[in-house]
Amino acid sequence: MHEIRALVYAMRVQQERGSIARGVYAWAAAESRSKTTGMDLLDVYHDVAEGRMWWLPEQGQVSRPK
Q1: Do the Cβ atoms of 36 and 29 come closer than 8 Å?
Q2: Which residues touch 27 (CB under 8 Å, ≥6 apart)?
Q3: Which of 20, 27, 34, 51 would bridge 41 by S-S if both were Cys, CB 3.0 to 4.6 A apart?
Q4: Cα–Cα distance measured from residue 63 to residue 26, given in angstroms and rounded to the nearest whole number
Q5: Cβ neighbours of residue 10 under 8 Å, at least 6 residues apart?
Q6: Could you tell me which residues come within 8 angstroms of residue 44 by beta carbon, excluding any fewer than 6 positions away?
Q7: For 2-50, what is each residue's pLDDT tens digit?
Q8: Domain ranges of the chain
Q9: Structure pTM?
């Protein structure tokens, strides 16, 4: 539940202020992903923040670009 709240907040801030919330957004995505796959939290965070993985809020997961 906390991850969802953090994502909603980060998306709202990101829409209002541009890329300021990118770190918060990536962290929430990483936290959610690491709990479901056992992946290292910091690895997923950096992948999302640097664009190597994308957060898919409608699916509740991150995905690697093809």
Answers
A1: no
A2: 6, 45
A3: 34
A4: 12
A5: 21, 24, 25, 28
A6: 29, 30, 33, 34, 53, 62
A7: 556 666 666 666 665 555 456 666 667 777 766 666 776 667 767 777 7
A8: 2-63
A9: 0.43
